[in-house]
């Protein structure tokens, strides 16, 4: 970036409004709509701050204002060292690594002395830590400790009602642990991280070249339209109030979700987290930075409620009553948080002193609320999966299958949910009917005529009640949820149905499933957990988390190929390609107007493909429940019968036990792909929300899922007992945050003030050899010269004389070194060099040194620095710029690293400099070539096919199979997925040591380039990556490869009009595909014997077949349903599917640990 990121562009002054900055080396400039900001943390940015790899040196926040370390919290530095270590642990289990960490970071610390503990009681140390807020000498400027409060919940009186709302009986819940929101805000702005808080929103633009049009960029929360709108509003508000301080938005991002704290126990926690959008998402998204502020733990409705209700009302509460009271409970918690102090700050602002010693007036504003669908429904106070199922709009559920059509786009704009007078009056009327007139919560008139048109509930959202009068539209807060709505939503539903289709092939089903599972397990891993090795059978769908489904999608095209027969193979390939394209675009962390328009186009294509998939599979395949779905429905039915029997029976005496009849018999029923879901509908909201609030990694629920690891860890240390552990977790959380501030202060007080090499704020307790490299380097490798990696060339080549990979090894190496010594630009392996020239290349000592790891740094599409490690013993596949003479050729070359060396060499007969020994780093590679079969279909974005490459065959191909590279030629790694429809062969190469033993001297003939496996890899083949400056020409080669939908959307965007969708959304019918199949003379799929997974039918409706293309799945109410406990969407809730991470020790069999309300696995520890 330029030296001063806020330097004015030509023609602009420091007083210009709006204010435009200079263009940086990436071609990016900013426009600040409200003038040049008085404070911006971007001038603190260094290359260390934009690193994402754990093996790169990264930054530590360094304040310009020295923080005074606390001097009274601990009796001496040894105690402080031990306490910092204890509270920096990322696990509560004591393991060998933890013991090693204790020795390294505490016992060997030069400031540590055991004698310092001679007169110290650890009980008093923890007591001092717990009472830090009451210490007048504490350096903590703000006391934001936990408060134990109480809430009162109004409970409707059945059939009788109350005279006034003041007379309504109230149920009291005590020990509600929460923190004062204003104290949390003041504390956050007093912490060192607040130095990096942004106060001024801006619009970011990218101009790829001087002659191109600028494109708007979307990345951070404060570069979106919503923040600009809120900032304009607070400026006007402050001006009207006569405020003399500079106003700014305090961006609050809320997140909540219930989680189990143990694998098999019943202990739960329902936390509310607050993140500050003023902080960059790259810092905010790391749990190690403690950016999540725990503000409340929502208590469950206690068991004593039924006792209280029976005493007050003379009858037991119904499930509808309990559900209503739970909704009231959650909103009562938020009313407690949104107290009078917060509302006053919301209206008038609050003075905040910044690190530049300037006091500004901050106005807290909620920008987003992240959660899964049940959380959104609960906080929006709408009904669950009913007519108007979306918290953002009033589009009817019946329109969900129209995703991406012109009507769908119009509906979303015309029928946005508004917290207007009509909505509030409707809810007030419903509350009058329930509380004053005593109407039942299930009253038809209430649900059909009053609440039904908008699918409302008789509960007013706390956000609406407390902040609605100040202009907040609560329905606009709810962010789309990529994890639950797509990865374990739409994509998971497609994956399930593909397995159902395979199981419908009769006697062929088991063979096809075995092939599918074997293919999944054969896909090599890629990157640091980017694509992980698959060890289990994915078709069993056991112990799968969202991360697993994401991996499945990114490799699915190659894995499912050829399992369904034409024309269905092509239909499914197109669907999988579009699902992966949509997912990749939606997950990009840096989007331009062009890419966002292409995401909009992909949404239209995906809607079309889903409708086609639903129609064709309905008419062509007889699909039934999977065995796991049958088991799940049986358990759900048994649980429902048990609850029904309990609620209808008289209260039991002490010691009396409940017995149930035999297990209900459930048969596999016909199951079709369901489009009538919120998850399908929600995909149409992403483009607009990204424009308003930045890219999806700003408001993803993954941040909250990751933060769940903290209270789960605290639970281990907390006192156990009914609800006692909540207080313990709160205390542990406060201790950890205090010690985080202590540790940060210690780092800032260090004399050298240099960036830490630990990467994270706390030690990660991993080996640091080889050492971390500088992000500015292109690559790094070890320079060890020990006997273990020393290779004497003559003897080494003699030992491998029979290995075909070593043919002409030395001449090729000499030719490569000659080119580098003579500084000849690289244009591929140099051949035909005369022997006398090769003899002039002298390798010093006739020795080379072999290394295990090569690390390559590169700038990603979103201008971050990342690093990849290549180990020749694994599948180390790379890409580099092509050096073909043809300008229209493919822009990349591909190779597999089989050796990493460094050596010294010189050139005899050249200049004096060339005759001096030079050290060289050399990579030995095996080359790939494109699939040259004339029958190979075209690949690319228009063709909807991945490119295929194969190893160069020295017998058939006119190019050498092996060669040498300067590591600086490497761009990055690639993920190669075998073409499983082909065969394996030697590819002209006999048994060789460069193949792993597991390959048994055979290679796959061809591989797919898995460009969906990584976002940066995706952009290398998509084009338009802002950070790809050095390879811009190569990446932009693909910009012209777009289908007609992309072209229409891009043209419409440039012309400022709506795209013409009608010619673009034709859906192929089953009849059209069937006729194609019959013309090919193939056996129609529906003539296969149907594999039956069903047991004997019990004659109930559970065993009846459904016939509609978009059937309502089990538990999905078509009218007025509000049963959050038993409804689920898409029929695809499965054991352990809802966390992004999954605890490997969980066996997936305990169905009682599954939260059927939110499809969340309860008790999972994220890996």
Automatic annotation (TrEMBL):
Residues 634-643 have a biased composition (Basic residues). Residues 1087-1154 have a biased composition (Acidic residues). It comes from the Eukaryota. This is Uncharacterized protein. It comes from Coprinopsis marcescibilis. Residues 775-787, 1073-1086 have a biased composition (Basic and acidic residues). Residues 629-666, 766-787, 1063-1154 are annotated as: Disordered. Transmembrane segments: none annotated. InterPro entries: Plavaka (IPR041078).
